[in-house]
């Protein structure tokens, strides 16, 4: 439709990322600073597309997510837009419309792609010229893992040392094309998860007896994964990624009440992936705060991996994606 006079309008796309060395826990909940650094891969064919239109004179934000409004999500989006409004020195509301081409809130990091796209589009709409690092810092404040989706390929989000959080920022390790692994995502439930990540992390830090061991061992895992990525050493990346995934879940399971993000099919998928690897297929698994299993594999193995996962009772669907680029502008 025609722009209202003075409306400031832009659209951006970002993709979800999957952590191979996991983020779990916060050292500062206001600035959203992580207890640990993390390393991820940004995906390509799953996306969030977000359009933002600031309207001078409008008091409130109007938010539509996949054609619907959601009060809790709208509050998070307003809080994120407030950071951009502060930077730009404006105080008016926006119309936000966002679409995902994959299921929301089921452990597929919709908040990562969603807030990366929102920060990118919002900054463009307000005419803010922000570096990618500055966009990553703002995206981090909106949702931790969104810091990583500003960039494509293999990405590290640093723990950072500064109290103001300006160095807790993501940066690229390796381009997607430099090591084009593929990812099969086994969907084992389409329901929204019962305990969101922020609440899960809070509960874990407060009650899991493994929290300090988790924090103490993360630097070594990051070193190992970074070296495996730079050497394109699949077996080394497989070992460290499954280790970090299982360690994160063990940490969270030991919270009170324990966080159990898996269902039976998730576990069957883990066994199947390990059986494939024992047969010589280059594949490993990772699982986030939800029941989907992500199998990362060499390009030549993708059909075999998808077939094996599809075969497992309880697997509803298997998506397939490569690695992709960071957040970018779309025609508005
Ligand atoms: C990760 N997860 O590294 C970890 C592994 C899920 C499991 O980042 O509270 O939505 O917005 O900073 O980024 C999901 O948590 O949490 C997540 P907030 P976020 O991908």
From TrEMBL:
Keyword Protein biosynthesis: no
Keyword DNA damage: no
Domain (Diphosphomevalonate decarboxylase-like N-terminal) ranges: 14-170
Name recorded for this polypeptide: diphosphomevalonate decarboxylase
Record keywords, A-Z: ATP-binding, Lipid biosynthesis, Lipid metabolism, Lyase, Nucleotide-binding
Alphabetized InterPro entries for the sequence: GHMP_kinase_C_sf, Mev_decarb, Mev_diP_decarb, MVD-like_N, Mvd1_C, Ribosomal_Su5_D2-typ_SF, Ribsml_uS5_D2-typ_fold_subgr
Family: Belongs to the diphosphomevalonate decarboxylase family.
PANTHER family in alphabetical order: DIPHOSPHOMEVALONATE DECARBOXYLASE (PTHR10977:SF3)
EC number: 4.1.1.33
Residue ranges of domain Mvd1 C-terminal in the record: 184-307
SUPFAM superfamilies: GHMP Kinase, C-terminal domain (SSF55060), Ribosomal protein S5 domain 2-like (SSF54211)
Highest taxon listed in the record's lineage: Bacteria
GO molecular function, a single term: diphosphomevalonate decarboxylase activity
């Amino acid at each position: 439709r025609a722009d209202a006079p003075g409306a400031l309008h832009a659209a951006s796309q970002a993709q979800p990322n999957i952590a191979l060395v996991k983020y779990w826990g916060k050292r500062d909940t206001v600035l959203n600073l992580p207890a640990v650094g993390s390393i991820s891969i940004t995906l390509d064919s799953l996306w969030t597309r977000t359009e933002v239109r600031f309207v001078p004179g409008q008091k409130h934000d109007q938010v539509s997510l996949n054609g619907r409004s959601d009060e809790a999500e709208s509050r998070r989006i307003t809080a994120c837009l407030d950071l951009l409004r502060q930077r730009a020195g404006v105080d008016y509301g926006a119309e936000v419309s966002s679409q995902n081409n994959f299921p929301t809130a089921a452990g597929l990091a919709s908040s990562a792609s969603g807030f990366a796209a929102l920060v990118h589009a919002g900054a463009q709409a307000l005419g803010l010229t922000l570096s990618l690092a500055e966009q990553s810092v703002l995206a981090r404040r909106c949702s931790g893992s969104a810091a990583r989706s500003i960039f494509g390929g293999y990405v590290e989000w640093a723990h950072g040392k500064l109290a103001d959080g300006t160095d807790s920022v993501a940066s690229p390790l390796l381009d997607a094309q430099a090591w084009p692994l593929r990812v099969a995502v086994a969907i084992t439930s389409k329901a929204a998860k019962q305990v969101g990540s922020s609440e899960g992390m809070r509960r874990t830090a407060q009650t899991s007896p493994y929290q300090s061991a988790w924090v103490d061992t993360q630097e070594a895992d990051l070193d190992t994964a970074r070296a495996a990525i730079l050497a394109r050493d699949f077996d080394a990346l497989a070992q460290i990624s499954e280790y970090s995934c299982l360690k994160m879940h063990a940490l969270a399971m030991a919270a009170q009440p324990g966080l159990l993000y898996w269902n039976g099919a998730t576990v069957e998928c883990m066994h199947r992936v390990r059986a494939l690897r024992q047969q010589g297929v280059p594949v490993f698994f990772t699982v986030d705060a939800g029941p989907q299993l992500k199998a990362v594999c060499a390009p030549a193995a993708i059909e075999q991996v998808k077939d094996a996962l599809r075969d497992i009772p309880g697997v509803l669907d298997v998506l397939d994606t490569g690695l992709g680029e960071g957040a970018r502008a779309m025609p508005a």
